[in-house]
Amino acid sequence: MLAITGISYAQQIDRKAVVTRHNPLVTAVDSLSSLSVGNGHLAVTVDITGLQSFPSSYRNGVPLCAMSDWGWHSFPNKNGYKKEETYKMLDTGNGHAAGLYAVEFKNKDGKEARKKEATEYYRTNPHRLNLGETGLEFYNAKGQRLGISNISHPTQSLNLWNGRIYSLYNVSGEGVAVQTAVHPATDCEIFKVESNLLKKGMIDVAFRFPYPSGNHSDDGAEWTKAALHKTDIIESGADYAVVRRTIDSTVYYIRLEWKGGALLKCGGQHLFRLVPTADNEGKLEVTERYICGTPNPYHQPSDLTSENVKYEKGMNEVAEYWEKFWKEGGIADFSGCTDARAKELERRVVLSQYLTAINCANRMPPQESGLTYNTWFGRPHLEMTWWHTVDFSLWNHPEYLENILAWYDNAFGDAKEIAERQGYKGVRWMKMTDPWAGESPSGVGSLLIWQQPHYIYLAEEIYRHKPAKDILNRYADKVFATAEFMADYVTYNPSTNRYELRGCTAMQECKDWKTTYNEPFELQYWCYGLLTAQKWRERLGMPRNAEWDRIINNMSPLPEQDGIYTAGLPVRQSDSLFIDSNHRDHPAVLGAYGLLPDHCHIDKEKMAKTYDWVQNNWTWLTTWGWDYGMIAMTAARLGEPDKAVDALMLDTQKNTYLVNGHNYQDNRLRIYLPGNGALLTAVGMMLAGWDGCPDIKNPGFPQNGKWMVRWEGIHKMQ
Fold this sequence. Notes:
Blueprint: H1 15-20, E1 25-26, E2 35-38, E3 42-46, E4 66-68, E5 72-73, E6 87-90, E7 99-102, H2 113-124, E8 127-128, E9 133-138, E10 151-159, E11 164-171, E12 174-182, E13 188-195, H3 196-199, E14 203-208, E15 211-212, E16 217-218, E17 221-222, E18 229-237, E19 240-247, E20 250-259, E21 262-268, E22 271-276, E23 283-292, H4 311-328, E24 331-333, H5 342-360, E25 374-375, H6 385-394, H7 398-421, H8 454-465, H9 469-489, E26 491-493, E27 498-500, E28 516-517, H10 520-539, H11 546-553, E29 560-561, E30 564-565, E31 569-570, H12 588-594, H13 604-617, H14 627-637, H15 641-648, E32 656-657, E33 663-664, H16 673-688, E34 710-712
Antiparallel strand pairs: 1-10, 2-3, 3-4, 5-8, 6-7, 9-14, 10-11, 11-12, 12-13, 13-23, 14-22, 15-17, 16-25, 18-19, 19-20, 20-23, 21-22, 24-34, 26-27, 28-31, 29-30, 32-33
Helix pairs in contact: 5-16, 6-7, 6-8, 6-16, 7-8, 8-9, 8-10, 9-10, 10-11, 10-12, 12-14, 14-15, 14-16
């Protein structure tokens, strides 16, 4: 049996010291430095005041949202669009009969005009909700509102060990102190405001509720459509109120409770203010619990009547949760390293652990920007599930991975329907989806296939943590159905006696499915998936599937030219293997070796030459944040640890990590959590190793005495 215990090569790492030396510190208004607190199901992002006081100043940076994994909305389908209107019969050229694919119609005129409208509706809906904005409003002695320019001498820090944001600053010559957190067991924001300004009636707390924007990328807030939604107080008392939010067919609630002398007053149609009373002594404690009202497949409405956690008890439970998180998970201590890059790498690792925990440890696959703000309408992309979850397994939090895999149980029927209407056996996992496992129409996404073996890989990760019969029984039906599609999807070429992958969108999405085939990562991943499914059959006492073995043994070799693996083969023989599309977007050819166990078809010498070619020829501005972790893993498996570190620390825009730890990409995608996941996966692998790696300490790091990393609780990679 494979041993995957977290051998540390370390004694008694001071985990608290490792974590807290990277507490983010913000001392100026910076829209890219907003901080977040959360529990994996609810995250709240705040500005320099410790709450969401000035959202407009942060809208184009890291926006100020309160988002959950259960809060979703759809605009009314007034025109009666049907999903079938987004389907198009396609012959993908892989030897199978034409099937129906959910594509993105783009023609505004003629017969396809309604199809375009249907496309837009089903791409936009459902979308994730910004549940509300809770901020402070400041006034001068004359009762005039003050702006963000009136905030002076700010000092704000996120204490990673206890999960709390501390914000200190001055307004009108008076100090203000705010503490902010999210409760671990309930979707409840907890905060305390302390200031003499409360006594003077110069601060109140504002609760603002927007209509959803439904935009591709933003904070999800539309403030000009007040008539389209309702905000009602349905219950109240001296120190609490229950607010009901009705947005078309979506309903959720907010239970507010406070202590410290204040009254809740209506300030507008979708605005309430908590106003200090004369007996306020300069302190206000508030708990704000968001409650699901519209059920979805994995979350039912909660009890409205149960009281919120009290401030002190809640903060203590927050601290206990985060201390447990840091003590039970993997940890890496770079303080003994002398390489100048080690401190920054440790910072990225610690902050990435925190950010993935609050944004990606959901009850369903997370979106690429997590619970911080919406991108692609707030919807998950299943090809990214690997990058969002493998790090949880390696860093000893497999429970998060198990929670996400449970969503696939609900998605199973929909995935089977997709395979059937396209003429395949088994299940075809969708690309862009939602809590109900809907398939978003896309001319690119509906043909994507590299998300398909993810389920097998992730189920194998769970088994490595718990190699037991009940684990096999829990996941086997979906492992086998996934493999069944994969076996049915391939095309047999009798002239070469090889199986090919045609008619698909590759990981390297700039490759056109109509012009290229046999992309190397997909070939390798297909072999991995079928090989692993065979292992599961054997573990369950079942015979190997003969068809799967035939495909494994006769899968096409990786395409190459002049001893270098290429990004795929051209459908037209006249096309060059080294056209422009082969050295931009994701360098997926390296993923064929870096992400996957060394199982078949790879010539290590050729892959080393390919690595060097990519380094010298790639257009780095076209890459994405997770590419650098992928490249590092390839270098590590090649026995090039210096190159692995160089890849992780490559000085390029999309490998930027902000003060809050977020992986910045560009003006549209200001955070990118797959990049954080890739970093953690690569570093975990480089420390704990991988199946078949050299039996040395930290096999993926240089053995030059400069990288004396100590670690605990990290698991070996496949």
